[in-house]
Amino acid sequence: MTARPPALGASDKLTFLLSLIPYLMDHDSVTVAEVAGHFGVPAERVREAVRLIAVSGIPGETHQYLDGDLFDIHWDEFEEHDRITLTHLVAIDDSPRFSAREAAALIAGLQYLSSLPENADRDAVASLMAKLSRGASGTPTQLAVSSPDSDAAMSVIQSAGRSSVQVAFDYLNARGEHEHRFVDPLRLESVDNDWYLRGWCHLRQAPRTFRLDRMSELRTTTEPVGSHDAGLVLPDTLFQASDDDLSVVIELPASALVLLADYAPARATTPAGGDRVRTTLRVAHYHGLKRLVAGLAGLVTVVEPAEARQAVADWAAAGAARYDDPSGEA
């Protein structure tokens, strides 16, 4: 005699049904055995649930259950081949859906998240993107987040993150110095078009941020990451001050301060006339100001020290000289 599966309470049956219906909607046709294996329940329990679904629905305007008010399945496939295929859905089709534009925006965000090393389960992300596409009220715009130039470096870092090993590379810092680093990769982040690795630097014995386009000879190692990872909390801001940093006073519109959140969170400001304010940044090297000023062109003015102003002025003059030189060489 075949043992019957243990009886389920009403709440357990409801939970199983609420999980089973979305699963069946995501699979055009699936066998009873596949469903049973997915949910870890006996096959007979799946069959009972499918039979219950087929007599469930929402009464129409007549308050009676007519054919169009019930779920339906392909009965021949179910009874002869033990295969489940939903042929009619009720209520769920009428639930609110993302618009095509909303779904496209969410899919783009998921594509970005899938590039981060901590999100190693790409299959789960791909499945969620497929669900968003199917569940939208219209066909989402076909788009893709463009791959950065540092794609190869990101691939190496992601591989190291999945294997929990260190990466090694030669690094050109802001002062123009080359150093060999061994780093536990923790996170990849972007600011505009630049990508950064945040990790535990074994040379400095502290968290550090590295620009991917300043790395060379990047490779994974066989050295495991340190045990500090479990308790290490990365700051919310990308760039962190150090004792060796240099102070620079800049002036900009008060409304643009939010654009400096990664560089100078919660910095004190002083009025500079009109809607402009002055604040102080800490940078590793005055030449690092060039990218900041270029990214906020026309908004930021370097006030002091003189060396910082000169570094930015020389850089701007070199760029302008290219427009005056017919050969294109400064």
UniProtKB/TrEMBL annotation:
Q: Where is the WCX domain?
A: 246-318
> What residue stretches are annotated with the WYL domain?
154-219
Name the source's superkingdom: Bacteria
The chain positions of domain PafC HTH read 12-134
Q: InterPro entries per the record?
A: CBASS_pafABC_assoc_protein, PafC-like, PafC_HTH, WCX_dom, WYL_dom
Q: What protein does this entry describe?
A: WYL domain-containing protein
Tell me the organism.
Cryobacterium tagatosivorans
